[in-house]
Amino acid sequence: MTEFDGLPVLRSPIVIAAFEGWNDAGDAATAVVEHLELEWQAKPVAEIDPDDYYDFQVNRPLVSMSEDPSGRRIEWPTTRVSTCTPPGAERDVVLVRGIEPNMRWRGFCEEILELFHALDVEQVILLGALLADTPHSRQFPVTGSASDPEMANRYDVQQTKYEGPTGIVGVLHDACVRAEIPSLSYWAQVPHYVAQAPNPKATLALLHTLENVLDMRVPMGELAERAAAWESQVNELAASDADMAEYIRTLEQRDGDEPLPQASGEDLAREFEKYLRRRGGTAGPGGPAV
Q1: What are the helix and strand counts (H, E) for the chain?
Q2: 151: closest CA among 120, 166, 173, 118?
Q3: Quick check: helix, strand or coil at residue 180?
Q4: How distant is the alpha carbon of residue 4 from its chain centre?
Q5: 73 in Cβ contact with 65 (< 8 Å)
Q6: pLDDT in tens, 244-284
Q7: Which DSSP string corresponds to 75-112?
Q8: Which InterPro entries match (predicted)?
Q9: Is the pLDDT at 201 greater than 70, yes or no?
Q10: H or E element: which one contains 168?
Q11: CA angle 18, 21, 23 (to 5 degrees)
Q12: 102: closest CA among 26, 165, 19?
């Protein structure tokens, strides 16, 4: 582990982590962490020594020009950790953004957990994105799972019952459970027929989910505009391809056939109060005021 100026003392820190590769369709999950790094002015505190975990013939280092005496700088593929204090928040956030390791996953997770313990992390949120049969024109589903029944009930997600191949997000989630660190994971569904990165609409869906989980305002920047422009571009592509347009209509019809969950008036009022609190507004007799 490479340290910068020592590890800071944090207030009830919560981790938000994402990894490039198999877990990150459309780069949607890592784009969330990168977005928060910029918006919350995150400060780097540590990085994983890449020699033990990465195959540099698969994930090659990048050369760039710099002010070093040699005039060149090599950036090694790795996982980096930063910390930030969101405006108005009562807790600090640890951001983890990296690349899925090529080897020694258990050792990698042990090293990450050592850092979490050193920072007194209280909760971990892992983000991912997967290719799915979801239409680009509808709201992207985000599915979640929790490390224990209490968390599953608190955040209204399922306790994970998935069986099959997994990536570093699943392995780290399991490692957190074994280390008794409460852990959630959220996955955005990305249309498989437009899998290219970036996918701002999927990133936006994950950010909205984070806003609900953290119960704080999350800055969206220009993501809404970028998501709308992305959807418009896909619409143009579909308009020029009859087969693709027909396939999308099939997905939209199937999506429309799925029943929507019913919410009570109390549920809606509670969610609206949370929204107002995050936005710093109040609801008056005549309706919402933000």
Answers
A1: 8, 13
A2: 173
A3: coil
A4: 25
A5: yes
A6: 999 999 999 987 655 434 434 454 445 445 544 544 544 43
A7: E----EEEEE--TT-SS-EEEEEEE--SS-HHHHHHHH
A8: Proteasome_assmbl_chaperone_2, PSMG2_sf, Rv2714-like
A9: yes
A10: helix 168-178
A11: 55
A12: 19
Return the SS3 of 71: coil
**pLDDT, tens digit, 9 for 90 and up, residues 102-152:** 999 999 999 999 999 999 999 999 999 999 999 999 999 999 999 888 888
Name the residue type at position 133.
Answer: D
The DSSP letter of residue 24 is B
Closest CA to 190 of 230, 219, 243, 250: 230
Joined together, the tokens standing for residue 86 give 């969101």
* Count of C-beta atoms within a 10 Å radius of residue 86: 18
C-alpha–C-alpha distance, residues 226 and 231, integer Å: 9
> Per the structure block, which two tokens stand in for 53?
């975990």
Q: Do residues 179 and 113 lie in contact, with contact meaning Cβ atoms separated by under 8 Å?
A: yes
CA distance 121 to 89: 16
- Give the H or E element holding residue 268: helix 265-279
Q: How much is the mean pLDDT over the chain?
A: 86
Sheet containing 123-132: order of strands: 2-3, 43-47, 80-84, 93-99, 14-20, 123-132, 183-191, 142-146, 158-159
The pLDDT value recorded for residue 272 is 44
Residues 6+ apart with CB under 8 A from 34: 97
In contact, 289 and 272? CB cutoff 8 Å:
no
pTM: 0.85
The pLDDT value recorded for residue 256 is: 65
- Give the H or E element holding residue 187: strand 183-191
12: left (phi over 0), alpha (psi -120 to 50) or beta: left
List beta partners, residue 24. 129
Beta bridge partner(s), residue 191:
132
- What does the chain come to in residues? 290
> Which residues are bridge partners to 90 per DSSP?
none
